[in-house]
Batch of 3 targets.
Target 1
Amino acid sequence: MSKLFIILGSALAFLSVALGAFGAHILKAKIGEQHLSVFETGVQYQMMHAIGLIIVGILSMTAFQGQSSLLNWAGWIMLIGIILFSGSLYMLSTTQISAFGPITPIGGVAFLVSWLLVIIAFIKG
């Protein structure tokens, strides 16, 4: 699992940079400032949690292997958080369909749970 989290985190970080450039150079002329800000928030949180996913992968390979179950859960929940939080913000900002808005907090809760699991793994490890 640890290598998979590092690969997924790296791919999501790559995608975050690409999406950030897309927003700055293409979307800027097509959507309003408010929607661009929403899009940029998605990019920022995706990058932060892509790095978090890489960290989870590295921790899984180190002394915290005894807590691999907690770290695996943290990694998968963090990935779900990226998809729900950032994905819903991308959809909301580019389509202006407000139905995507209520999905964002679910992704935020997933982020909180994933980081809490990392804390617990450290405490137990």
Target 2
Amino acid sequence: MKVLIIGLGSIAQKHIFSLKELGLVDIYALRSSKDPTSHPGVKNVFSIKELYNIEFDFIIISNPTSKHSETIQEVLKFRKPLFIEKPLFSEISEANKKLLDNIIEVKVPTYIACNLRFRDCLKEMKKIVRTRRVNEVNSYSGSYLPDWRPNTNYRKIYSANRNLGGGVHLDLIHELDYLCWIFGVPEKSSVIFKSNSSLQIDAVDYASYNLEYENFCANVTLNYYRRDTKRTFEVLTSEETFLADIISNKIYRNDQEIFSSEQPLINTYVEQMEYFLNNILTGTNPNFNSAEQAFKILKLSL
């Protein structure tokens, strides 16, 4: 099996690791530099023309979000399944709507990578809430952007720059994604965006969503400036309160631990890739977070 990957940043390394773990080592990378850093087990190609001579099984797009549109447009001609790192696009525009229509029209299988769907505590929470009357949901994700890439000027990375597709509402779209995965797309929503914290970046560094469902509301808070990292998913039912600590991979019911997993976070990437290979690539479940579904979540995010 041959795989093409476009964009070799930190997230791409996780996808490469996953491919190797699953025994897929025939990996090609489309590079923009003529003298790029080499990566073990990855063969470099330097132009679109070279790609016509290689029969790829699928393509991974993991470059900056702001480049997704042009990249998808460029590779769609190969009619190969697309594994696209979240989010799908950096904006909702007429051009991107037309591109989505084109993806649907040519019937290319797509998957938008949201690895938290494969976090054990969230999979368990999905089972728990299925049979309970939900009254309220609270989702929180806060961390300190300068700690994301030590020894790097955080103001220069794409996350901190609006024009590169950065912003907490896009970086942490996981929260909206897993809520839609578990409960469906809300009937109504409202949001507050801010970018005036002490981080002094132009991208959104705080987002607060209120999502209205038929019988309950979900509140989502995202930020880039919390020093003590916190990522939780809380569900208040008619009788109990369930809290998933996504970092520790544990679930509490009324403050009593009822579930715990030793699953390393990197394994969510491996499980995600395995699911893509066994379900999206084979056509068994081609609509699991497809481009069409991810576009709805992107609209909610923006």
Target 3
Amino acid sequence: MIVSDKLPAGPLAARLSGYRMEQDALGRSTASVFRLEGEGLPALYLKVEEVATFGELADEAARLGWLKASGLPCPEVIARESDGEHNWLLISALPGSDLASASALTPLVRVELLAAALLDLHRLPIASCPFDHRLERRIATAKARMQAGIVDETDFDATRLGKSAEALFAELESRRPGREDLVVAHGDACLPNFITSEKGFSGYIDCSRLGVADRYQDIALACRSIAHNFGEALVQPFLDRYGMPATDPARLDYYRLLDEFF
């Protein structure tokens, strides 16, 4: 259940009347996420975070609004509230299950749905997207997060466990690719952040990192997520469906390295 001292006390509290709340433990967001259900009421999600320099909820709300205005499916922002100590974001629930959990579908169908969803997103015109996640800005943010001491060194990928954030940041600077193939990227393109139902793809969630970035930002994390959930054998079918049958291993590894800071 939601901790009582995190409950909103303003107008948002009235919107929660009649709902049961259950914490959703899936995902790595710094915000706490609660699913809200009530008899005769539409399912919702409530996110809560402490007010801090690197909060995500304002970013997520802005991106969801932009994505919906761009014609792609995602949760609707219902309400936002802050009391100076906590931020809250109330959003609609999408029908269905995330692609990591949608067991009614075969893994092959799920990776093909992921590829199609990324294609739709990556085809949006970058000139229309106000969110800049090019490497210059993301590396600067990675450095700021490192200096703030919020990079979790215990959560590094297995190949990097035991290294310090400072050592990885030196790699991030020295190995920076010389070019970027820019698209509107999701930013955290893992299977749990894409929802599907029996009617097809339902939409994108956890969009706080959405912005203009190299397409490898999404391809690298998608391939890693597929290998983790379904095994390496389904990475190539995903790439084939996306239209990138051959990839650059160095760029894949670089964007996974960048992800260690977020």
